């Protein structure tokens, strides 16, 4: 989800259901976890990247996508 969320950062997830189209969620689907803008459509979820170099993904409801929660923050951990 670069440029907003960088590799190595930690995201904060508020466990919720689906609140509204276009919010950024963590979604578990097909053994992967995605951080994407999510839009509900009639037949499934459309996952939209903030990085224009990546195409949208469409996840049919019958493939059981699971919305883990809404992304509410992020930070880079301190190295000790």
Automatic annotation (TrEMBL):
It comes from the Bacteria. GO terms for molecular function: DNA binding. Coiled coil: none annotated. InterPro entries: LexA-like, LexA/Signal_pep-like_sf, Peptidase_S24_S26A/B/C. The keyword DNA-binding applies. Keywords: DNA-binding, Transcription, Transcription regulation. CDD domains: S24_LexA-like. This is Transcriptional regulator. It comes from Streptococcus lutetiensis. The lineage of its organism: Bacteria, Bacillati, Bacillota, Bacilli, Lactobacillales.
